[in-house]
Amino acid sequence: MIVQIHDILQFMTNIDAINQKILRILEREGRLPNLELAERVGLSPSACLRRVQEMERTGIIRGYRAVVAPEARGGGFLAYVTVGLSVHTKASQEAFERAVARAPEVRECHNVTGVFEYILRVEARDLAHYKHFHTEVLGTLPQVSAITSYIVMESTKDERA
Question: Which of 4, 106, 120, 137 is the most exposed place for a label (fewest CB within 10 A)?
Fold first, then answer.
């Protein structure tokens, strides 16, 4: 089902304290049974389920997923990478986005404002694997003019999981 932006905006204006609580709980515990969720937010199971289904239908809740340890995918080395483009055109951006979409090391790609155009979250096995990605993937893209790497030494807070 295609959700219209109008539906999302209209529903967002109706997010009350109970829906906010539902969303906070589901962000942390997406597999929580409806019965337990209803109990925590003080609703009947049927009322709670209706609210969740409406938030799913309107696109407020976009999906559920498993958060997999990077080590299980052969990773464990994490870097945030800023990328500047040499040409600031739509075609250049689209070509860059297509290229990073094909790179399994790139777990997130964000187009941002500021000094550079993109921030990437890159996972690799180790420094040697990251160096190969940096040199042989990013470094060969004709659109790229600047690459700055920020190696993650420790993550004290990560609410994606």
Answer: 4
